[in-house]
Amino acid sequence: MLHYYAMKVNRWAGFKICRGRDGINRNRFAKKTAADVRRQFDSSYEIDMKTGCWQWNGYTNGTKSIYGAIYIDGKLVKAHRYSYKIYHGNIPAGLIVRHICDHTTCVNPQHLVLGTHKQNTADMFERGRNRNIAKHGENHPRAILTVALIQQAMDLKEAKNSITFIAKSLGFKRTTIAAVFEGRTWRHVTGLLSRTHDSIDKNSPSPHPRPPKKSL
Length: 216
What we know:
alpha+beta
């Protein structure tokens, strides 16, 4: 780890040059040479001997998925894309660089392959990398209902009971039970569609027809 940086002002370029003990210019706005970028890349990962991943320990960005990143001429470039480019060549337009190891911070070129967004999404669901899967239904950390309670509510609804009665019987607020019957929650159990997603037949008359325009 670099704890100290030697800094000086380049009067001609107009920006500060920030060099660590390894002599690498780490100012993100500096125009670095290809050798500077490559040295910074090679000093920013550690090899995991168990998985073979090159774990990035430099700058990272992202919210849902964390990726390594490196500044090149003031532009933030994903580290795994840079790794693919220097080891395999240019990335064709319309394709992305995918991780076959499922570690987004890995920059090992042997773990990187080209693909499409559709392939990447399919891999995400197949390998369980979608965070929403673990938060579905009863597995959601804020879930207060269960499948058994939903089935009881549906049975009471079929018996012509009111939503207020069902909510009191099960010990929940009316708004919670109403959301179930309106298809806003637990659709994967009830099979109900939300009112906002119901399909409307364009040929059917509107329940609220507009008044005819007055002729001038």
